[in-house]
Amino acid sequence: MVNQVHRRVLTGTHFMMGNFAVVEGALAAGCDFFAGYPITPANEISEQMAQRMADVGGAFLQGEDELCSIYAVTGAALAGAKAMTATASAGYNYMQEGIEYAVSGEIPCVIVDVQRCRGENYATQADIMQARWGAAGDHEMIVLAPSSVQELFDHTIRAFNLAEKYRTPVIVLSETTIALMRENLIIPEPDKIEVINRVKPSVPPAQFVPYAAEADGVPPLPNFGDGYRILHSINPHGEDGDIHWKPEVFDRLYQRITNKINAHYDDIVRTEAFYLDDAKIGLIAYGSECRPALEAVEQARAKGQKVGLLKLSTVWPVPEREIKALAQQCDLIFAVEMNIGKYAGEIERVCGGACEVVRITKNRGLIHTTGEILEGLELKLGVSLR
Predict the structure, then answer these.
(1) Is 0.85 topped by the overall pTM?
(2) Domain boundary among 192, 224, 252
(3) Number of Cβ atoms within 10 Å of the Cβ of 177
């Protein structure tokens, strides 16, 4: 096993816990500030960050609570840090006010939510809607859904890059299932990892207009202390950064902060297709549910069924193009998720009646087994697949 170090960032092949993979992904992306408050099953992220931040010259803060942590992250990000926090479902609830601030202030940061059942460390995907709609006010969210230890590493890097590129908080929607498991993890050499940094002002402070966006809708972001006058507020503000209680200011601000996400669909949204070339039956899944879903697809194919899987690596914005294309291709779509059927409603909305959508859902603290997914297919198709 290779274990070389670049600024004490690991490389090579490791057998690693998912929560530790998040830490290494963050450091590889340049994270140099972490704030968090203890909560299972995310504690290993904070514990490892407390040790590893010193290796890269960064700073670690254990906040007095989750609200302190998210506001510390936004403050550090505005001072020029690449900043992150990690929590679990109940703690994610407490962060919503700070997430609203990060959205409206266009503050780049990464938030890892390790989903758990209410009050217990059992598996669920029940935070899927809150990750999109929790923050107040009109906005869009970028939410990534890893399905393995490797993807926890990869998606954390991508989350930092998207946060920096679009000046927005990005959510890594982890789960108890993958956070606490150990799998092989391959960490490339630093020069093989794409790292994106925020755009800084190209004009001196006297000529700087704080929210005058570039063509991509993203204004440059100076660091606190660089001499640029800028007010970071949740209140409606014009390009000059001053607060204006006018309907047209509201409208322009909301349009820009939503369009800077929606206009870059091709850059943000990621899906993977498995056995979809000839599929007449489609499964759609995200996160750890992709694992048994793919096994179910392969077993069904072995029984002669033309089944495929659309894996959603980005869950917000919704991968509407890919879901619509699948609905037009297939006679039947199965929505597989570990809750009572939340994202399934989005899939039904996007399919728009082009094909029938059947829900395979449960919220019992356990990931679906392959057999349970096959049973759902059997009940609808009227065939034996096992």
Answers:
(1) yes
(2) 192
(3) 25
